[in-house]
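Long-time lurker, first post. I've been practising inverse folding by hand and with some scripts of my own, and I keep getting stuck on stretches where the structure tokens seem ambiguous. Below is the full token string for one chain I'm working on. Before anyone asks, I'm not after the true native sequence, just a reasonable design that respects the backbone. If someone could post their per-position residues I'd love to compare against what I wrote down in my notebook.
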């Protein structure tokens, strides 16, 4: 944030405050201080982009008057536990969604190559592009070498809750309704299970499949929570889908294929052939797959992935329709002729 933007930011905060919001997440410390002065009863949360990685950083936020710290995504379970022991502040951690290849809030990559700063909320995602790794001018490796897999903490929820965190943050901005519906429903289900000491904690395979189906970048990882590890999936930077079989026959004239299915395929599903291509098609009947673009590049035994599950998405919309709330309103209508 720059000086000339401060007044407008405070006016925006005033509008949101009067509308009844619960809190404001802030990256800029100067803005956080001004917000606390202007709206002393409005909770201010320190964004993960403040890159708070230790107890001293948490203590500083506490001293300034912030209510909650969203810890940096680069911390381990052990480090989160140590921070919890040293503070009574509310702690929030990322539970599910995209990771930054850099420290969140400290990456200048997008502003350098795309003139759009991720630290200003405008990241162009240059880490999701294809790169070559050179040594003395010679290619050593290539692919999406800087693209991290998304994080999932579903399998780690008992350990994560034992750390003493107050809230889990789920990625939802710019995500589809179906994504938000599935992810929040799954985490609510398993947080409740993890807190129930009378039951054994186990994640059902079908629930894991649904999470992978709605979005995954080469599977899911646990980020840095279990310690430093390889977080990158270099073969594909976006949704991989779920493996459902292999190409078993190619009909070049009809631009159609047959698949040796390992999982079900239904009307309305969308598939991808091979993880690093974009040959997709919608299923148009039970016996064949609709026209495939550039079928000359499809080979026998190519892996086939389902990237959209029509039935799964439809279930989310059915849930949504039931949850639409109607409220009584009082108004006057005027007609102009």
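-- Answer (accepted) --
I ran through it position by position. Result:
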């Amino acid at each position: 944030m720059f000086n000339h933007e401060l007044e407008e930011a405070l006016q925006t905060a005033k509008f949101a405050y009067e509308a009844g919001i619960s809190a404001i997440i802030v990256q800029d410390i100067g803005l956080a201080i001004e917000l606390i002065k202007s709206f002393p009863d409005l909770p201010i949360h320190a964004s993960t982009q403040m890159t708070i990685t230790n107890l001293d950083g948490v203590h500083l936020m506490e001293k300034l008057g912030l209510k909650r710290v969203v810890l940096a995504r680069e911390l381990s379970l052990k480090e989160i536990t140590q921070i919890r022991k040293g503070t009574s502040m509310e702690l929030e951690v990322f539970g599910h969604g995209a990771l930054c290849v850099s420290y969140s809030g400290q990456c200048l990559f997008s502003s350098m190559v795309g003139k759009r700063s991720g630290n200003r909320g405008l990241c162009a995602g240059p880490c999701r592009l294809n790169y070559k790794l050179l040594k003395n001018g010679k290619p050593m490796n290539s692919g999406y070498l800087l693209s991290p897999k998304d994080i999932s903490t579903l399998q780690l929820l008992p350990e994560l809750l034992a750390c003493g965190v107050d809230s889990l943050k789920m990625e939802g901005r710019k995500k589809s309704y179906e994504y938000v519906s599935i992810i929040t429903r799954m985490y609510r289900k398993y947080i409740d299970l993890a807190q129930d000491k009378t039951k054994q904690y186990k994640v059902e395979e079908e629930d894991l499949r649904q999470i992978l189906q709605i979005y995954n970048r080469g599977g899911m990882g646990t980020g840095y929570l279990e310690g430093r590890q390889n977080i990158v999936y270099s073969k594909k930077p976006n949704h991989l889908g779920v493996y459902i079989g292999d190409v078993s026959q190619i009909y070049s004239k009809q631009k159609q294929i047959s698949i040796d299915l390992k999982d079900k395929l239904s009307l309305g599903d969308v598939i991808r052939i091979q993880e690093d291509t974009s040959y997709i098609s919608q299923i148009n009947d039970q016996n064949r797959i609709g026209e495939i673009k550039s079928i000359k590049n499809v080979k026998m035994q190519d892996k086939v992935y389902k990237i959209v599950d029509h039935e799964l998405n439809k279930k989310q919309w059915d849930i949504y329709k039931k949850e639409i709330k109607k409220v009584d309103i009082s108004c006057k209508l005027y007609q102009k002729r």
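A couple of notes from the structure itself: Residues 177-195 form the longest helix (19 residues). Residues 242-320 form a domain with the Thrombin, subunit H fold (CATH 2.40.10). Happy to go over any region you disagree with.
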